[in-house]
């Protein structure tokens, strides 16, 4: 998939520090993260292991832990870091402008 248009996902202040929220766009679901340093990231919204939504997960530093089986992923890169997750997440560019979070899909 080639990257293309920037989509407004949410107000920037809707994502708390060290948190993740769900963002649905057409037939796709994404996870929008904000790390403890205040950086924003985006990935596909479902764990690659059990297809459980990551928005119910726990953000710890630069890791997201899936709420179903506790698999972990590196938020900036999407790399699977703990089994049972072994397939990386697709990540997407993020920008914050005028108090809004945009992702490029």
Sequence-ordered SSE layout with sheet pairings:
Layout: E1 6-11, E2 19-25, E3 28-34, E4 40-44, E5 58-60, E6 63-65, E7 72-74, E8 80-82, E9 91-92, E10 94-97, E11 100-104
Antiparallel strand pairs: 1-11, 2-3, 3-4, 4-9, 5-6, 6-7, 7-8, 10-11
The low-pLDDT segments are none
- Averaged pLDDT: 94
What's the CATH first level? Mainly Beta
The helical percent reads under 10%
Rg (C-alpha, Å): 13 Å
Task: Enter the CATH topology name.
Answer: Rieske Iron-sulfur Protein
Number of helices: 0
Tally of individual domains: 1
DSSP strand (E) fraction?
over 45%
Structural class: mainly beta
In CATH terms, the superfamily is Rieske [2Fe-2S] iron-sulphur domain
| Shape verdict | globular
Domain Rieske: 6-103
InterPro entries: MocE_2FeS (IPR012747), Rieske_2Fe-2S (IPR017941), Rieske_2Fe-2S_sf (IPR036922)
GO molecular function, one term: monooxygenase activity
Keywords: 2Fe-2S, Iron, Iron-sulfur, Metal-binding
Overview of the structural elements:
This protein is mainly beta and 105 residues long. It has one domain: 3-layer Sandwich (Rieske Iron-sulfur Protein). The protein contains no helices and eleven strands. The chain has strands at residues 6-11, 19-25, 28-34, 40-44, 58-60, 63-65, 72-74, 80-82, 91-92, 94-97, 100-104. The protein has a four-stranded antiparallel sheet, with no helix packed on it. Strands 5-6-7-8 form a four-stranded antiparallel sheet, with no helix packed on it. A three-stranded antiparallel sheet has the order 1-11-10, with no helix packed on it. A hairpin with a 2-residue loop joins strand 5 (58-60) and strand 6 (63-65). The termini are close together. The mean pLDDT is 94.
């Amino acid at each position: 998939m080639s990257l293309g248009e920037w989509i407004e996902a949410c107000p920037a202040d809707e994502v708390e520090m060290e948190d993740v929220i769900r963002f649905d766009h057409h037939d796709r679901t994404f996870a929008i993260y904000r790390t403890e340093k205040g950086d924003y990231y985006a990935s596909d919204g479902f764990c690659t292991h059990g297809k459980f939504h990551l928005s119910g997960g726990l953000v710890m530093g630069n890791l997201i832990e899936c709420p179903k089986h506790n698999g972990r992923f590196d938020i900036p890169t999407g790399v699977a870091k703990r089994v049972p997750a072994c397939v990386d997440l697709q990540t997407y560019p993020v920008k914050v402008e005028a108090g809004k979070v945009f992702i490029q899909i």
